[in-house]
Amino acid sequence: MSTGMIIAVIVVVAALVLAATLVMRGRGRQGGPDLKRRFGPEYQRTVARHDGDAKAAERELTERLERHGKLRERPLEPAEREQYSARWTAVQERFVEAPREAVAEADRLLSDLAAFRGYPEGGRYEEQVAALSVHHAQHVEGYRRVHRVGQAGPGGGAGESAAGTEELRTALMDARALFDDLMNDSAPATGHRSETATGTGDDTRHQSSGKAGMFGKSHPRGV
């Protein structure tokens, strides 16, 4: 190979390397804002979990996107929708007499519903939550909360105190937002908030089946 040919090859390779570097830098500049928009509160939570290291958090979130971004939720048939709605109504009604057991059942219900829609099975909780965070970033924290409280048990988990009734109630309300999202076949990948989950307290708009309020018809005020 002549000297001129060698120089030409070197120039071409250098140009390709420069172009690739510029593309990667461009993606890096866009990564932060894009990930912030997609993940919303989940972005901030992940940054905090990495002690403020945004780059480490973005690497984790990018990996989640690569693993779960192409997941497509399985549609719910009317009978299936009614089945899950009935289970949630039973959870709400049970909360009046047995709030801790109701929250534990809500945890199982979300796990079952997510798996039915095509997410990893509930036995792989961390992976299921990671996948949900990609497609339901606004509400996945509600699942974490009801899982944490539901798994703690009457005496609390290691280093934790048992949750009080108000904490259980709040956990169930937070979980309801994700339940509504998973029941909604038209929910977009991010930023969705079901209209049925915008109320608070005993608001009877927290419905899927229309059979009971957030905590059953006999739910006392202040619980």
Description of the molecule:
The model is unreliable at 22-30, 157-161, 188-213 and 216-223 (pLDDT under 50). The chain has 2 domains: 3-68, no CATH class; 78-197, no CATH class. The protein has helices at 3-39, 41-49, 54-68, 78-95, 99-116, 125-135, 140-152, 165-183. Helix 1 crosses helix 3. The chain has 223 residues and is mostly helical. The protein is elongated, with a radius of gyration of 23 Å. Helix content is 63%, strand content 0%. The protein has 8 helices and no strands.
Topology (SSEs and partners):
Elements: H1 3-39, H2 41-49, H3 54-68, H4 78-95, H5 99-116, H6 125-135, H7 140-152, H8 165-183
Helix pairs in contact: 1-2, 1-3, 2-3, 3-6, 4-5, 5-7, 5-8, 7-8
Helix percent band = 55-70%
Q: Tell how many strands the DSSP assignment holds.
A: 0
The largest sheet is: none
- Average pLDDT, rounded to a whole number, is 78
- Bin the strand percentage: under 5%
Overall outline: elongated
Low-confidence stretches: 22-30, 157-161, 188-213, 216-223
**N-to-C SSE string, H for helix and E for strand:** HHHHHHHH
- Report how far the terminal alpha carbons are from each other: 84 Å
How many separate domains make up the residues?
A: 2
